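FYI - complex with magnesium ion, inputs then prediction.
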Amino acid sequence: MSAANKRDFGQTGNSTDGKAINMQADLERILFDEKTILRRLDELAAQISADYHDRELTVVAILNGSLIFMADLLRRIPLPLKLDCLSVASYHGGLQTSGEVIFRQVAPPDVAGRHMLLLDDILDSGTTLNAIRKRLETASPRSICVCVLLRKIKPRTHLATADYVGFDIADEFVVGYGLDYMERYRNLRYIGVLRKEMMQ
Ligand code: IMP
Ligand code: MG
């Protein structure tokens, strides 16, 4: 069997110089395995489906972090929803938010008169979600709610809240299941805490 055909839960890959890379070895510990994540998504999806069953729903997913979360969550919601994506940058690939949120699209999505559910990977300082919410309010949706896969338990200077939360976590840097460090680890099937020595 070729390496590509193996179902590799350690998610070993090949570096450009041919050496095997084991992304799991870069983690201090795994926080949520795939089964746990998907079980929680079943619950979140049931809650969202019940809340929006009689409303015109537009989901706005924030790229790139919410991509995998969005794909798994939306397939569990049997409503005639619309989907849009928004691409922003606030971390510039590193650990700390820069405080500045850069929108890659010029025009906001067409959500006038519709109920909007914003999807993001993680609520950390709240800078990103605050800026996005402000921007999308100008597009006149009927309502805006926020759904995040993870929420860090920490004091926030921004008044950013989430209406739907997958998991509350400690204030640690996590990767996997869409979340990155320097654009790596997004394709891990699980979520884990990145070892400190992997971050400069
Ligand atoms: P905030 O503006 O500080 O809330 O940060 C929002 C963005 O920063 C998220 O959408 C993530 O892309 C990124 N981020 C924050 N914390 C983490 C983390 O622990 N791991 C990976 N990315 C993170
Ligand atoms: Mg990121």
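Residues 35-167 form a domain with the Rossmann fold fold (CATH 3.40.50.2020). Confidence is low (pLDDT under 50) at residues 1-8.
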